[in-house]
Amino acid sequence: MNFKQHKNNICNAISYAGYGSCILLVIFWILHNEILPIQDLPNHLANAHILLKYNTSFFFKSHFTVLVLPYPYILQDMLLALLMFGGISFASKGLVLISMVAIPLSVFYMIKVVRPGKQYLCWLSLPLMWNILLFKGNINCLLGFSLAFSVLAMVWKILFALDKVSIKRWAGLFVLVFLLYLAHPAPLLFCIILTALMLLYKKINLGHISAKYRVLFLVIASVGGVAFLVLFKYMSEDENVHLASEYGKIAELANLITFFHKSDALFLVPYFTGLAILIIISLQGIRNEPLPFIMCGILIVMYLLSPVKIGDFIRPHERILYFVLFLLPICCINMKYIRLERIVVLLLCSLTFLKAFHYFTICSDSLSPSLKQARNLLKALPREKRLLPIHRGLPYVERIGVWANIQAYYTIDNDGYVPSLFSTEYMPVRYRFKPDYSPYSSSLMPERLKKYDLVFVWGKTDGIQDTLFRYDYFLHGQIAQYSVFCKKY
User: Fold this and answer.
1) Closest CA to 412 of 134, 139, 89
2) Alpha carbon distance 97, 91 (integer Å)
3) Cβ-based neighbour number of residue 66 at 10 Å
4) E strand or H helix at 429
5) 454 phi/psi in degrees, rounded to 5
6) Strand pairing partners for 430?
7) How are strands ordered across the β-sheet holding 309-310?
8) Rounded-to-integer distance, Cα 451 and Cα 440, Å
9) Do the record's keywords include Ubl conjugation (predicted)?
C-alpha cells in the first residue's frame, strides 16, 4: 500500500467515524425526550395499539374493524406492533429511530455504489435528517425513502457494475421492492420511474437488454401498479385534485427553512447553497455521465407539475422535493477537485448538522413537557370510554400540528375511543361506524354530546364550560391549557 492510499484510508476512517457520531447524536435526540413533538405519531401508535389488542378487547371490537391485508402503509403498523412488546415509549422512539437512521445509512450505500471513491458525499444527507416530513409524522414515507435508495443502488449495481448477478442478490432486491410496496406508494413510484430511466439509458448506450433485466423492470412496475390500484380504488368518493402553479412551487422552496417558527432554520441556507454550487461545478461533466442529472431532473419536473392534494393524499409534492434532495449527491460527478470537495462537504455538513441538532433539541425540550402534561391528564381518565376532543384555536406551531393528535394517547394508555384516528380504506384499522365528530367548540350539540363520555379541551374553556355543565358534564381535571370534562352517571 503506497502513502497516498494509506492517507486516503485514514481520511475515509475519520469520515466514517464522524458520520457514525452524528447518527449517535440523532439517537440521543430521540431518546432525550419522553414525547417527541411529531404531529401524527400518536395516531400511528394508537392504530398499532388497536391492532395488537383487538382480539382481546371487546371495547375495541365494538368500535373498530381490522382488516390486515398487504396494503401500502402497513409496514409502519407491522413495525410498531412488534415494537409495542417493549412498551409504548419503546415503540414510538424505536419507530422514529428506524425512520431517521435508515435514510443516511441507505444514502451511504447508494453513494458507495453510484459514486465509488466519493463516499463522503453521504454527509450531505445528515442536515436533512430533521425535515418537515419527520415532524408531520410521515414515517411511512421516510421508511419508503430508505428502501427506495437501497433498491436504486442495487438496480444500479446490477445494470452497470456486475457482470453476473447471483440468485441471492435477485432475492434480496425483490424483498426490498416488496417492503417498499408495503411502506409507501410515493417512493415506490419514484423508484419505478428511475428504474425505467436506468434501463432506457442502458438500452440506448449499451445496446440490447437481456431478458432478466426486462423481468426486473416488469416485477417492479407490477408491484407499483398494484400498489396504486389498491390505493386509488379505496379512496373516498369525493376525492379531488388540487393543483398549484410552477411559480408557487418555486416560492414554496422557502418552506425548507421553516419548521416551528417563520424562517427558524436559516442555518440550512449555507448548506443548500453549497449543495447547489457542487451540482453546478459538476455540470461540466454532464456529457460524459448524464444519467444522474436525468434522474434528478425528472423528479424536479415532477415536483413542479405535481398537485398539492389528491383526495386524502395531502401535499405529495413535498415527498418529491425531499426525495430529490436526498438523491442530489449522486450528481456530484466532478473528479478534479476531490480533496477540496471533501473538505467543503465535511465542514459544511458537520457544522450545519450540529446547529440543527442544537436547535431541534431546544424545540423538543420546550414542547415535550406540554405534551407530557396532556398525556398525564388523559392517562388519569376512566378506561374504555368515548372521548370527544375540542380544539380552541389551531393546535399548530407554524407548520407543525404539535397538539393536533395528542388525544390519541387516551386510546394508547386507557384503551379508549377517540373519533380522530387515521381510518381510511387502505389502512388496517377502521371505524365500525363513521364518527360523529368536529374538533370545534361550535359542534357541541346535544345529539353529539350524548355519544361521548368525556370531552377533552385544548385551550381556553370560556364559552363552552357552561354548555358542558348544562348537559351534565363536570370538570374532571385541568392542567395548563388542557381540561377534561366527564359525563355524570
Assistant:
1) 89
2) 10
3) 15
4) strand 429-431
5) -135, 150
6) 65
7) 241-242, 309-310, 313-314
8) 16
9) no
Contact at 8 Å (CB) between 273 and 351?
no
> Can you read off the three cell numbers belonging to residue 232?
386509488
Angstrom distance (rounded) from CA 11 to CA 18: 11
What is the longest distance spanned by two Cα atoms in the chain?
A: 86
Set of cell numbers at residue 338: 476531490
Which sign, positive or negative, has the C-alpha torsion 157, 95, 220, 123?
A: negative
Contact residues for 363 (Cβ-Cβ < 8 A; gap 6+):
37, 259, 260
**Phi, psi for residue 482 in degrees, rounded to 5:** -110, 140
Q: Whole-prediction pTM value?
A: 0.90
- Distance between terminal CA atoms of the chain? 82
pLDDT per position as a tens digit, 12-59: 788 889 999 999 999 999 998 889 999 999 999 999 999 999 999 999
Q: Which residue has the cell 424505536?
A: 94
**C-beta of residue 249 within 8 angstroms of C-beta of residue 206:** no
DSSP state at residue 345: H
Q: What is the pLDDT of residues 237-292, one digit of tens each?
A: 445 555 556 567 787 888 899 999 999 999 999 999 999 999 999 998 888 888 99
> What are the backbone dihedrals phi and psi of residue 471, each rounded to the nearest 5 degrees, phi first?
-105, 35
69: Cβ contacts below 8 Å, ≥ 6 apart: 428
Q: Which triple of cell numbers denotes residue 122?
A: 453521504
- Single out the residue of 476, 435, 436, 484 nearest to residue 458, CA to CA: 484
Residue 65, φ and ψ in degrees, nearest 5: -120, 155
Tell me: pLDDT of 300 over 60: yes
Domains and CATH numbers, the chain: 14-366 (no CATH), 367-487 (3.40.50)
The DSSP secondary-structure symbol of 262 reads T
Amino acid present at 193? I
| Three cell numbers, residue 43 | 395516531
Q: Which residue has the cell 366527564?
A: 486
